[in-house]
Amino acid sequence: MRLTEFHDLVREEFGQVRGDSLLVDHVFLSLGGRTAAAAIEDGVDPKAVWRAMCDEFDVPPQRR
Q: What is the per-residue pLDDT across 18-57, written as a single tens digit (0 to 9) for each?
């Protein structure tokens, strides 16, 4: 998944403001206790980060 696609999905699902906040403020245990932004910066595939966000916030399967 390209980074631009990841950001588009985050903003579509969570909205601009909340999505941007989730990327830098919410710590995901499934990402090793990192934020989504930190995980991506550390080299985690954006698709894996998107899946972690979907799992954490119960995003329905059809929107994943």
A: 999 999 999 999 999 999 999 999 999 999 999 999 999 9
Domain membership flag for residue 64 = no
Indicate the residue type of 46: P
Q: Which domain holds residue 46?
A: 3-59
**How far apart are alpha carbons 42 and 18 in whole angstroms?**
22
* Residue 39 in domain: yes
Question: Nearest to residue 55, comparing CAs of 25, 31, 20?
Answer: 31
Our count of domains for the chain comes to 1
Q: How far apart are CA 27 and CA 48, in angstroms?
A: 15
pTM of structure: 0.93
